[in-house]
Write a structure and sequence with these properties.
Protein Transport Mog1p, Chain A; 2 domains; 7 helices
Length: 167
């Protein structure tokens, strides 16, 4: 089977003598347009932070009152998730790429019920009667879900601050 030249090499063969580099710039523009049309942003091209590192076993133990087993990240749609559980209680963190704070605020506005900003932390909100924390930092949205446990506000604030520092 004959070797197929790369797309940019095929374009480069057709360089115009008065406009050197024009074909390479055109190929780059086509690639950027294709990625943009697919909804790929700069953060999505790089790896998401591991949600099991954003909130660790030690962080989860502070909420669950007992040390959970080490969790592994699971792929969830366009993001990743990490679940810590002890008996009937659990803490789950989900991360996904989200290009801007404006896009994050748009998703916050779509939530039903009372959604409150967390005092002292930018782009951090409490929802679902304190059972959900929503954060955005460096092109990543993180959602922290609490099941079977009602963490006090100070604990939520500490967890959110820790997660923001690791995103």
């Amino acid at each position: 089977m004959p070797h197929q030249p790369a797309f940019t090499a095929v374009i480069a063969e057709r360089e115009h003598p008065r406009h050197p580099g024009a074909a390479a710039r055109a190929a780059l523009a086509i690639a950027v347009a294709a990625l943009t049309a697919c909804g790929v942003n700069a953060r999505a091209a790089t790896a998401l932070p591991n949600p099991c590192v954003v909130l660790t076993v030690k962080d989860a133990a502070s909420v669950l009152t007992s040390t959970p087993a080490q969790a592994r990240p699971d792929r969830t749609g366009d993001g990743e998730s990490c679940l810590y559980s002890v008996k009937h209680m659990s803490l789950q963190i989900e991360t996904r790429p989200l290009a801007s704070a404006a896009a994050f605020l748009k998703t916050i506005r779509l939530l039903k019920g009372v959604v409150l900003p967390v005092a002292g932390l930018n782009d951090t909100y409490s929802a679902a009667e304190g059972k959900e924390l929503l954060l955005w930092h460096n092109g990543v949205e993180a959602t922290i879900l609490f099941t079977g446990v009602d963490p006090v506000f100070a604990t939520q604030q500490t967890l959110a601050s820790t997660a923001l520092g690791r995103l």
